[in-house]
Amino acid sequence: MSQRKDIHKVLIIGSGPIIIGQACEFDYSGTQACKALKSLGYEIVLVNSNPATIMTDPETADVTYIEPLNVKRMEQIIKKERPDALLPNLGGQSGLNLCAELAKNGVLDKYHVQVIGVQVDAIERGEDRIAFKKTMDSLGIEMARSEVAYSVEEAMGIADRLGYPVVLRPAYTMGGAGGGLVYNVEELKTVCARGLQASLVGQVLVEESILGWEELELEVVRDADNHMITVCFIENIDPLGVHTGDSFCSAPMLTISEQVQKRLQEKSYKIVESIQVIGGTNVQWAHDPKTDRDIVIEINPRTSRSSALASKATGFPIALVSAMLATGLTLPEIPCGKYGTLDRYVPDGDYVVIKFARWAFEKFKGVEDKLGTQMRAVGEVMSIGKTFKEAFQKAIRSLETGRYGLGHARDFDQKSKEELLKLLITPSSERYFIIYEALRKGASVDEIHEITKVKHYFLTQMQELVQEEETLAAGKGQLPDDEALITAKKHGFSDKYLSQILDLPEADIRSRRIALGLEEAWEGVHVSGTKDSAYYYSTYNAKDQNPVTQGKPKIMILGGGPNRIGQGIEFDYCCVHASLALKKLGFETIIVNCNPETVSTDYDTSDKLYFEPLTLEDVLSIYKKEQPVGVIAQFGGQTPLNLAADLEKNGVKILGTSPSVIDLAEDRDQFRAMMEKLDIPMPESGMAVNVKEALQIAEQIGYPVMVRPSYVLGGRGMEIVYDAESMEGYMNAAVGVTPDRPILIDRFLGHATECEADAVSDGEHAFVPAVMEHIELAGVHSGDSACIIPSRHISKENVETIKEYTRKIAEEMHVRGLMNMQYAIEKGKVFVLEANPRASRTVPLVSKVCNIRMVPLAIEIVTAGLTGRPSPVPQLKEHTIPYYGVKEAVFPFNMFQEVDPVLGPEMRSTGEVLGLSASYGEAFYKAQEATQIKLPLEGTVLISVSDRDKPEVAEVAREFAKAGFRIIASKHTCKLLRESGIEAEMVYKLHEGRPDMRDLITNGKIDLIVNTPVGRERREDDSYLRKAAIKKKVPYMTTIAAAKATVSGILSLKKHGSSEVQSLQALHASVRDL
Q: What DSSP line would sit under 906-957, residue for residue?
């Protein structure tokens, strides 16, 4: 079969906001698909609700819709655009589920849209647990013994027959949402009820436990003529029982026999052929090393998190090839420089790839750090080395958790062998760091294998590292002999970690190593389907095979490392745009990054990609090899900024805003002095290094105060402190406070509107495209607050003041490039909160809503010294934007059922969505809808607010009454509403009597909740309300500001109905110069 000519316009569904289990790997696959289909001449319509992605840029597809991903909106878009075909398997689980729903509701038939890539019935055969089991039985492929339940009672019966423990898996979900391993009937009742709710079809599979077996994955690609290849064999080093997204993995398989690999490949081919997926499929297997039994766990008939990893591990661009195959092309028709054509591809790299996950347990108080069948990781790193030891140690230093090796993490080296072994009983994010210390304390490989079921091979490798480290540490205070240093480097010990073990400056180790001629060498990974493209990894175990080009001047961009809360895909967006803009200006671009999920680590985003950790040792080696004219550190978030000063000390030229300016913005005293000079108000503040100082400053300023560490991103460790007792508690718990990294203390502006402005500045002039107004009041982290752009409720004078202050500060600080400013407006007066002279997480948002290319403008400025081009800033004009964008954050609270979902100064959202409309109310409504929370247009609203919000509650309730809602309220709130002449019914709080609020929520009697937490003023816990709301998927607002926005959205929709969907390109065409 060859390329289809009967289809011209293809609709691609993106995966929506970043959540646990579905991260930016789908931005990477969607962007690749657009590239592939455009090159084949198709017109592309793309729908996605996530503004932080490259794929929703107006240049990626021909027509782009940033709209909520649901059947109603999709039908509006299909009706308007009339695509010939829909490609659903690149948008993660969201894309697949939405395609299945569109087919079921008859939308695809109605508008004659064909599904390409994966057939609708194939989605069912792969995703529906019953259909999948039938298919496997017919192929004679064994599955874990299991039965399907549609109620808790049925599940209990099945579990009795199979014997506990059992695993529960809800159908049509992802990241193991709602599932889990249960050991008794009580646990089963809880988890099963949760699973039935999480499943699209109310169906849960109850299966025998195969805990402790090997978990293996194959990534298979199939074309329309049934040619199949295996792109990658992945071995999960964590045995079954830990979700693959949390598992530590290697590719190729290091301990699995050829014979088993071949058998699994044959069986995988049978499955993929019978389900008839075209493109990539991920097949997960369990293998029992004792009995040699194989069991298929599940398949994902789509590009997945594993396929992003497999792509980057092997150089085979699965999403790109999948999109080409979906159009009817076949593998023998796609040429490849290494294998001739792609049907002859085999995974034959002579290197080891390691994936290690990154978690965010510290962000969620009350969550136990334990890993199970429900995914908990928020990001991951990938490292490549010649040996397992080298790749493993490289992965650890890529994580950016402040660890450069496996030893001495937390206080594990203080614990006895027995204590450590006890900690290993439950898998946790610290598992391998604990194993390392247990081996140091003399635990045997057998003992650890018994508890963890991690295979002997991996434990022995770790044991050898421990022994080598102990030998080195015996010579503390002096350099090891040359032989020992060479061996340590070959085994992946980093300069920094050696300096910690030996108690020597890192520079001494580096200079000794270089004197011995021991430097990083690089090897290439060939990119399949290209003539000779490659990307590079470093090793101390091979000769250098890294050709360096001369000619064009080079610029190196430092990426953002692993995704985490506070530093996500937005920074990757900036790095990608920086690379594309530099190419246009005639530079050769080099990207350094270690995150396999991103577009920045796609081989053709830059001219040369180094898949490497972002540490001083690795970046300096590349700098020395490539000799770029400069390095850009302002786009990758906090990661490269933390390196910038050290790089500069080592003679590296940092382009754009200098590291000393970035330090100035972090140093409160210097920054305050500058604000005084410019006559710009700031909330009173101070810096403290110990408890005594902190208490003194807080007394002077007056409580409540906002406290936080310096040099952090995502509000790490930020809190609002109401009294001296809590202040002592905070200071005693604060880690790593030193005179050069003090704790910052500010007066907390209680009832202030927060807003922020992004600017592009050339050091002389600065331009502010728009002011973003936060919907939540001060005290909620800017990354978690919903925000409106352009601002809606800020007075014209205040907007002008904000723009003027931003310009003044940018000019005074000589910011070259991007900058983000945070302000608060209290009683009509603008205060500056902080300045961040770097790219911020709002850059993609501002770029998309205001139709301005922030990053390319910044690149023109930072390279002006090299290109001699004039600054673009004086030419920029103010625009009128005839529509609003509302950004809403998305939280992982459904994965962390035990956490109180209240917003505060520490960032906890994993992603964001955008609602666009000419009316602010509708934009807010659409943003909520995009987070999968459909605001009700009628019904019952429950209102219960804290004392500080009592003055404003009547106004909100009056609006709800106007919208036709029935109002139920807690005792005090109810009395207050009745006094204001608003009808309300009283309901009990927990422990006041029954039926109480929780009963009403659980029985589905409440459609919307407004509940602001009582917090410190009364020592009672009202978190049960918000937890119940999450369980029942009832929309809830925890601030009065959000409640006001909600009711205005509902009223606007009731009054005007839904407006027609508009593409981003059409909206941009409506923006006019002032």
A: S----EEEEEEESSHHHHHHHHHHHTT-PPPSSSEEEEE--GGGHHHHHHHH
Give the helix/strand (H/E) hosting 747: strand 743-747
Q: How far is CA 877 from CA 768, 769, 809, in A?
A: 10, 9, 20
Query: How many other C-beta atoms can be found within 10 angstroms of the C-beta atom of residue 346?
Result: 10
Strand pairing class (705-709; 654-655): unpaired
Q: Give me the pLDDT at residue 714, please.
A: 60
As a whole number of angstroms, the distance between CA 574 and CA 569 comes to 9
CA 1034 to chain centre: 25
Q: Which residue has the tokens 């290993």?
A: 424
Which residues share a beta bridge with 524? Answer: 536
What is the DSSP pairing of strand 554-558 with strand 588-593?
A: parallel
Q: What is the DSSP string of 465-521?
A: HHHHHHHHHTTTTSPPPHHHHHHHHHTT--HHHHHHHHTS-HHHHHHHHHHTT---E
Q: What is the pLDDT of residue 712?
A: 63
- Cα torsion through 878, 880, 883, 889, rounded to 10: 20
Q: Answer whether the bond into residue 252 is a cis peptide, omega within 30°.
A: yes
Angle between helices 120-127 and 258-275 (to 10 degrees): 130
pLDDT at residue 638, rounded to an integer:
87
Structure confidence at residue 175 (pLDDT): 59
d(CA 322, CA 32): 10
CB 913 within 8 A of CB 68: yes
For residue 996, the 8-state DSSP code is B
Q: What is the pLDDT of residue 193?
A: 86
Q: How far apart are CA 990 and CA 997, in angstroms?
A: 7
Where do the DSSP E strands lie in 588-663? 588-593, 608-611, 630-632, 654-655
**By the 8 A CB rule, do 380 and 396 touch?**
no
Phi and psi for 743 in degrees, rounded to 5? -90, 135
Q: Which pLDDT score, from 0 to 100, does residue 967 have? A: 95
pLDDT, residue 736, reads 66
The per-residue pLDDT for range 267-326, each reduced to its tens digit, is 999 999 999 989 999 999 999 999 999 999 989 888 878 888 999 999 999 999 999 999
SS (H, E, C) 668-730: HHHHHHHHHHHCCCCCCEEEECCHHHHHHHHHHHCCCEEEEECCCCCCCCCEEECCHHHHHHH
- Conformational region of residue 43, where left means phi above 0, alpha means psi within -120 to 50, and beta covers everything else: beta
pLDDT of res. 493? 97
Q: Which residues pair with 1036 in a beta bridge?
A: 1009
Residue 952 burial (10 A CB sphere; 0-12, 13-18, 19+): middle
- DSSP string for residues in 520-572: -EEEEEE-TTSSS-EEEEEESSS--------SS-EEEEE---S-BTTB-HHHH
| Per-residue confidence (pLDDT) for residue 552, from 0 to 100 | 94
How much is the pLDDT for 472? 97
Q: How far apart are CA 395 and CA 390, in angstroms?
A: 9
**pTM for this entry:** 0.91
The edge-to-edge listing of strands for the beta sheet with 180-182 is 146-149, 204-208, 166-170, 180-182
Nearest to 251 by CA among 354, 134, 331: 354
Question: Which residues of the chain carry a pLDDT beneath 70?
Answer: 1, 173-177, 711-716, 734-739, 1014-1021
Q: Is cis: bond before 613, omega within 30 of 0?
A: no
Instruction: Give the rounded distance of the alpha carbon of 603 from its chain centre.
Output: 21
The predicted-structure confidence for 447-473, as pLDDT tens digits, reads as follows 999 999 999 999 999 999 999 999 999
The pLDDT, as a whole number, for residue 1019 is 45
